[in-house]
């Protein structure tokens, strides 16, 4: 309520926020998390909390009247459907030349993501974040993050035999035919549960087209791991459906935090102002960057530097589909949880790490879908528009081309070898590349540039950044393990020295 005072306030409940919440509460500090999305604990009229990908409704999207599926087209038309506007779980946030998909709810991106839990290649981590001691990261913080996230590996024998991963085996075979290596990718989805799904012993989730609009079972999302552990200390409180709109120094020390509470229909219920001794920005690459850029531009946090808002990248994301031959079916039954990646990162002329993604339509389509992570050098900046009071992102449409060029080195080769072609109907009408959206926003408040070496915001003691905005635009693999491990490292330092 307005006037309340808390020792520590965390903005956002994704990976960075969940780590901050656990480490602060374990250190004996009462911690309040403010999250703009819902707490996803109450089932809808169908008895389910989340929707399958095949049956979206209001729960699927953050205030949209029409779905905006990443693979939004098929056979010459849009496959998007009308839905009720509601505080749904997946946001597709539109900027001038890209849409950024993000999770909305207690658990942030962990509610909607594919769960791929990949520790980056050490050499690339060192290239991207040279100021961070990699012995400490690979010796202590990556293992700590993997353990706390509940990362597990698929049983290889089951992978080889189950119909649910035929799509991945076909993706592997066609990659291997062209000389590309594949690798198993760990996940936070409980593979033992998935085996029981396949055996018909439990309710199907990953095997029932559940993932980007949430999983009703099987997935170790943050509400079940870090946030549950933080709650168990008795020192955690969470305000869902509260959006932080301003942070500024308070007269008597600490910071005032202004927030707006909405209901699930989007109507404003209340505006509140509280004070906090310390504020942890964990609103994600986009959320944290937008907030800080606006606070700097409006003079509320005047001492923030020019690096705030800079260094944003899309982790080189680009999506593409291939049409397999009729004799290479990918399976009508596909697990929604990816298990394999094509690893061609060693190609200096165009490094690629490509997730072999499911295309779970419930029917045979002979499609191989890939989310390629590439080394795209382009970086954008978040910019405050004084006219509208909004923060934009100056990413340009052509800036995805280096990612397409790199991905073509892999998928042109596969198509040539197999005598196959790209699907041109999945991302538009005659549009081969899914290059106008991103799953992996990174940067905007880069470690060691906009912050000090541990995420402290210079000039404003007690303000910290702990999320994906610290990572400078690229990490070469799916990013949440890195975001979690970096937050673990920074929180360990902050708790030891500042609190
Ligand atoms: P987030 O997890 O985005 O958390 C930020 C939170 O802050 C959100 O809950 C948001 O609602 C809240 N927030 C924002 N602004 C405010 C505000 N002003 N006030 C209050 N709250 C606010 N990564 C992987 O590693 N593996 C994968 O398999 C994978 N698959 C993905 C699939 C999809 C469809 C998507 C969208 C992403 C995927 N990702 C994956 C990316 C991964 O989910 C993100 O990198 C990760 O969630 C970022 O963590 P974060 O802590 O920086 O922010």
From TrEMBL:
Residues 103-126 form the Glucose-methanol-choline oxidoreductase N-terminal domain. It holds the Pfam family FAD_binding_2. Pathway: Steroid metabolism; cholesterol degradation. GO terms for molecular function: cholesterol oxidase activity; flavin adenine dinucleotide binding; steroid Delta-isomerase activity. Its cofactor is FAD. Its EC number is 1.1.3.6, 5.3.3.1. Keywords: Cholesterol metabolism, FAD, Flavoprotein, Isomerase, Lipid metabolism, Oxidoreductase, Steroid metabolism, Sterol metabolism. The keyword Cell membrane does not apply. GO terms for biological process: cholesterol metabolic process. SUPFAM superfamilies: FAD-linked reductases, C-terminal domain, FAD/NAD(P)-binding domain. It comes from the Bacteria. Belongs to the GMC oxidoreductase family. This is Cholesterol oxidase. The lineage of its organism: Bacteria, Bacillati, Actinomycetota, Actinomycetes, Streptosporangiales. The gene is choB.
């Amino acid at each position: 309520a307005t006037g309340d005072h808390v020792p520590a306030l965390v903005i956002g409940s994704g990976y960075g926020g969940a780590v901050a919440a656990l480490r602060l509460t374990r250190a004996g500090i009462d911690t309040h998390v403010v999250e703009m999305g819902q707490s996803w604990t109450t089932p809808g009229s169908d008895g389910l909390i989340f929707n399958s990908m095949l049956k979206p409704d209001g729960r699927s999207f953050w205030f949209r009247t029409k779905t905006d599926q990443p693979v939004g087209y098929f056979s010459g038309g849009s496959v998007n459907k009308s839905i009720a506007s509601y505080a749904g779980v997946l946001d597709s946030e539109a900027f001038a030349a890209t849409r950024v998909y993000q999770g909305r709810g207690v658990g942030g991106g962990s509610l909607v993501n594919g769960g791929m839990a990949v520790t980056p290649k050490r050499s690339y981590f060192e290239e991207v974040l040279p100021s961070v001691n990699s012995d400490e990261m690979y010796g202590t913080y990556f293992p700590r993050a993997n353990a706390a996230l509940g990362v597990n590996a698929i049983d290889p024998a089951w992978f080889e035999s189950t119909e649910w991963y035929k799509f991945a085996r076909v993706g592997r075979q066609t990659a291997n035919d062209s000389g590309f290596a594949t690798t198993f990718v760990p996940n936070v989805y409980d593979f033992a549960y998935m085996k029981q799904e396949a055996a018909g012993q439990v309710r199907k989730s990953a095997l029932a087209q559940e993932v980007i609009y949430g999983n009703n079972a099987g997935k170790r999302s943050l509400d079940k791991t870090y946030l549950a552990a933080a709650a168990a200390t008795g020192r955690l409180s969470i305000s869902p459906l509260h959006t932080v709109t301003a942070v500024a120094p308070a007269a008597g020390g600490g910071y005032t935090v202004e927030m707006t509470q909405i209901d699930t229909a989007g109507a404003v219920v209340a505006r509140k102002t509280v004070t906090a001794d310390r504020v942890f920005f964990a609103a994600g690459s986009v959320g944290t960057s937008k907030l800080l850029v606006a606070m700097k531009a409006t003079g509320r946090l005047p001492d923030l530097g020019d690096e705030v808002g800079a260094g944003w990248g899309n982790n080189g994301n680009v999506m593409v589909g291939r049409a397999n031959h009729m004799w290479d079916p990918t399976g009508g039954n596909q697990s929604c949880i990816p298990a394999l990646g094509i690893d061609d990162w060693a190609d200096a002329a165009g490094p690629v790490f490509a997730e072999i993604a499911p295309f779970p339509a419930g029917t045979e389509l002979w499609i191989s879908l890939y989310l390629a992570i590439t080394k795209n050098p382009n970086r954008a900046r978040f910019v405050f528009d004084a006219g509208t009071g909004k923060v934009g992102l100056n990413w340009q449409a052509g800036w995805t081309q280096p990612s397409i060029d790199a991905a073509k080195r892999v998928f042109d080769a596969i198509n040539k070898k197999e005598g196959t072609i790209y699907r041109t109907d999945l991302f538009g009408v005659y549009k081969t590349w899914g290059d106008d959206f991103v799953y992996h926003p990174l940067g905007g408040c880069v470690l060691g540039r906009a912050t000090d070496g541990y995420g402290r915001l210079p000039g404003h003691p007690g303000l910290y950044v702990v999320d994906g905005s610290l990572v400078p635009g690229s990490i070469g693999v799916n990013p949440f393990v890195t975001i979690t491990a970096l937050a673990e490292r920074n929180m360990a330092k902050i708790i030891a020295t500042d609190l």
